[in-house]
Amino acid sequence: MKINKIYLPLLFFSCVALGIVIGGLINYPVAKPSLSKNDYKTKLNRLINFIDNEYVDDVKTDSIVDLTVTNILANLDPHSVYVPPSEQTAVAESMKGDFVGIGVNFYNYNDTIAVIKPIENGPAEKAGIKSGDRILYADNFKLFGKKLKNEVLYSKLKGEKESSVTLTVFRKSENKNLKIKVIRDIIPIKSVDIAILLNKTTGYIKINRFAETTADEFHTALLKLKKSGINSLVIDLRENGGGFMEMAVEIADELLKDKELIVFTKNKKGSIDKTFATDEGNFETGKVAVLIDENSASASEILAGAIQDNDRGLVYGRRSFGKGLVQREMDFDDGSAVRLTIARYFTPSGRSIQKPYVKGHTEEYYKESETRFESGELYEKGKIKIADSLKFKTKKGRTVYGGGGIVPDVFVPLEAEHGQESLEYILQTGIVGHFVFEQLDQNRNAFKGDDFQKFQVKMLNNETYISLFEKYLSKAGLDISLNKSRALVNRYITAEFARQLFGENQYYQIILKEDKMVKTVLNGKN
């Protein structure tokens, strides 16, 4: 086994209760094994061996070990977790920042692999795969009409660099099957979604997670925006659950001056490790705004806290998640891994932003977010519960608070109407993309020949799709009235049409135009 670098994982929930009940009449054909009081470290191994060798029925002892490890970790803290091989492969790939494959965005539509959009300049697009194509076979392996496990499906589409796969696709627009040979290549998994100008002097960078490539992606994006003449920068960390701590540190270093404290950690022995900025930053002057929400966590909070405590810029949005624990990952030979909390981190002012938790009560810990809906704090800053005992001072003497996330300098409420809080989150899931794909699939020619400008005119004030989307949600078991938030819904639908027809850049041009947080920054509210 090996020990990997410091890791702040993406947010996810895993809680398994393991109970062992021993009772009744028990007959042992051999003497019971005994354990000394000092033999607790080998107790688990001996128990597993005993079950494996003597239990009356066949038992998969590897699954027992998985459950036992999960149960042990569940009694430590909410972020010490066991990750089985199937999940670890996908997470490791995502955090690595690339994989080898054919390069398509797809989903399983009516038991068929439907291509939403081939990745620009990727192998599939170069080979001639188009949006709307159904992938029926990978070589001779059938992909439709059955529910394939993800690992099986991915194994057929991924492979070695420069290896080939012949795809049989059905093209609805031509009503025929086609055989297309695709040469697999490296496909980047971007952690920086977009870098664009909001106006002539303000740049915008959206970071979706902190992976191995994030600092490099951010650096490239920042230099590109600097060449455009920006003097203000908006960094969007909304819905960013975290990732590698080092990446947050490197990005903070781009913005902070030499020897300014970025973050420090403290382990069980009380050892403190401080990390300071260097003199190599590329945006150490100029305005900085950081956008956060209730799902911004971990590395996102490190970056936001460093900017806030050093008075480098303002933090906009809503109180962040509140994860101030640092994990280290230990890999096992079977592909599984354990992420164990090894330290707490603190912002430059000395704040721990870790929200309270009770060991062994992980479910309650993650349900804390529900109380934010109930208390109304997603609509009013005054509803945020702040302990006066956790006051800290920024470099210039401003008061900030610890003990449960980063509280923004400028509060911006949810856009959805009060009582429809869940709608805003639904709009940010894949369900909007699936709805738009199915609408385009019915009549892809409706936008044929339109450039982006003509598309926007066509969609302006067009609420046709809102009622259709409402029915789509109802069919999916989500009975939500959209009447109170029609403008918000229409914006997300229009933006998704733009993404599937034109690309990511056009998606953000539409989604950000009326974004409440972005408008607050641009209007100079503080």
UniProtKB/TrEMBL annotation:
What is the official name of this protein in its record? S41 family peptidase
Q: What is the lineage of its organism?
A: Bacteria, Pseudomonadati, Bacteroidota, Flavobacteriia, Flavobacteriales
Bilayer-crossing residues are 7-28
Query: Which keywords does the record carry?
Result: Hydrolase, Membrane, Protease, Serine protease, Transmembrane, Transmembrane helix
Say if the entry is tagged with keyword Transport. no
Domain PDZ residue range list = 88-140
Which NCBIfam families does UniProt cross-reference here? prc
Question: What CDD domains does the record point to?
Answer: cpPDZ_CPP-like (cd06782), Peptidase_S41_CPP (cd07560)
InterPro entries tied to this protein = ClpP/crotonase-like_dom_sf, PDZ, PDZ_sf, Peptidase_S41A, Tail-specific_protease
Q: Which SUPFAM superfamilies match?
A: ClpP/crotonase, PDZ domain-like
Q: Which Pfam families match?
A: PDZ_2, Peptidase_S41
Please report which protein family the annotation says this sequence is part of: Belongs to the peptidase S41A family.
